[in-house]
Amino acid sequence: MITPKIPKIIFGGDYFPEQWPREIWKEDIRLMKKANVNMVSIAIFTWALIQPDEDTYNFDWLDDIMNLLAENNIYACLATSTAAPPIWLAYKYNDVLPVTESGQKVDYGSRQAYCINSPTYRKFIRKLAEKIADRYKKHKALALWHINNEYANKNQMCFCENCAKQFREWLKEKYDTIDNLNETWGTVFWGEKYFEWEQVNTPKASSGSRNSTKLLDYKRFLSESFFTLYRQEYDVLRNITPNIPITTNFEGDWRKFDHSLFKDSLDVVSWNCYPDPANPDSRKWAAMRHSMMRSLLGKPFMLMEQAPSQVDWYPVNINKPPGLMRLWSYQALAHGSDAVMYFQWRASKKGAERYHSGMVPHFGEDSRVFKEICGLGNELEKVKDIIGSNTDSKVAIVMDNDSWWTVDNPYGSAGSKSLDNETFWNANAQPFPTVLVSYFSELEYYFNAFYDLNIPVDVIPVHYDFSKYKIVVAPLLHLIKPGFKEAVEKFVEDGGIFITTYFTGLIDESVGVYLDGYPGPLKNVMGIKVEEYNPLPLGGKNAMKMNAAIDGFKKDYECSVWCDVIHTTTARPLAAFVNGYYAGNPSFTENQFGKGKAYYVGTRPDKNFMKDFLMNILAVQKIDVPDLPDDVELMTRSKDGKTCHFYLNYSEIEKKIKLPLGRYEDIISGNVCEKVLTLPKYGVSILNKK
Ligand code: GLA
What we know:
By secondary structure, the protein is an alpha/beta fold. The chain has 17 helices and 25 strands. 48% of the residues are buried.
């Protein structure tokens, strides 16, 4: 259960009463009750209201709102307000505002304008969290803490003097001596030797490409800084309210910090899910991110924000046509959410987000969107028994921030240029084999291939225990950490199937290349040695010819992006490249290792290959592939030996689904069905076996 105070699916949204006159508050409560809202997130951006100057705190308005909610049995997911520091703070204290890579101070005037390592900001947020927690610790409405808001979304990656100083401390802790640092960073290359700690700066743009290990270390340092920032508030809240669960809402963009750092300091994972209704692959987009969130703690998560209809930040913001908001809400539940929440309750009248949809649109109560909100909020009463239930995935994809940070390089060797906030995380800023590989896209490619077959997949951080899965995929695992080799070998020895791909196992934790063939430490379990690689030009193709003895594969497949030149040691080649000087060399190999098998895919194969390959290994591992019409998804959640089957129809036409033997009750409609389930356009059924 997300919070013991709400033994139901949590339904509500971000609520900003401070944007409205008090007469509206009562109306809000009436409409919330009509929509069956049971929790709202409040005080997310209200620091300036709570603390108008350094010595004054004013909680009157927040007391009134908390009381109003409590009187009406609506709970508060109470935020700490720290995502929007007040202007007086930045005006008064010089170290609060962040500094860009090119040395420019980012001014106040929006939210998240703070340096994540600023001692002043950190001191003030601790104090604020303490004041809020002390004031509301016993309040009936308090159900959940909401720390900050979407770390890293608009936070400027900072290069200020204070960050530089703390980076040096972090490095001293890690390397102990400057000689170790020089050795690990390989500073003998281009004579970049540091003679004393004070000379170590942040990896800002210079005259040419920067030091790879230093850049990676800075990303690791900033990633940890987000976590230590979170802990400033977490420790205060935990101490004052040991029994109130704590969350922070993630943006879903794992690239900017390693979310697994938060694992032991989060009671519930929550995230903000904004797929684009104009994108036909949105459901896959959302499914993968729901999986990442679910897998972080291995238990139900919260859909903390979604748009009731359109957002205002895609280039073109189409609205969600009737039924789609409901369908996507159920998709989140199907993938393990125990909450359906929105940004935001009432569409704003003023400010940057006035064109963003709200549960109560500008048009008001009599609007299509509000009617759909009411319909769903009341319907969710019927599905409350699913809370606390888990999905059961037999397949895992492992993801790793270090590999991400060292693979993605969409700007080529943009080494000497300053990178803007967004591209800083994307850009490796190193000379690199190709700008056409993208770490996360490769993960998505594999995720989507399983998703297309309706196979649930957990997406887990690389250092998590994966021994319970039957198939583990590590696409583009460029950097191999200590311990991974042993974990994979044991997993395969015990009967698991492990898959990895091209450009895996090139470097170690210090960005030192593994000599004597890739994939470095995984050579043994894969039974191969990669001698060289050949990235293909944009649109370039090769083909894979399957070895005649392999069942279940069509003869030839296309492949693109990359070709590895592979030597087998103990592995069996299953397919060979058709073109290039390496024509006839293996492109795809299988290595029997103990009771299991390890597959190496030395290229990006086409979707036909992916389907045949996955069908093959799923059969070996006895994982059933459900027989479903196109555009229908099936997910299950189980608890106490009972399983709910979620069927979701994403198409615009009715679908008929063949059901496994037995009689089923749809917990939404109450209908009983057998043999065939008919789902209308955007229809959802949650079936329980009778
Ligand atoms: C994010 C933020 C919200 C709001 C929405 C708009 O998720 O957390 O405050 O800005 O985006 O889509």
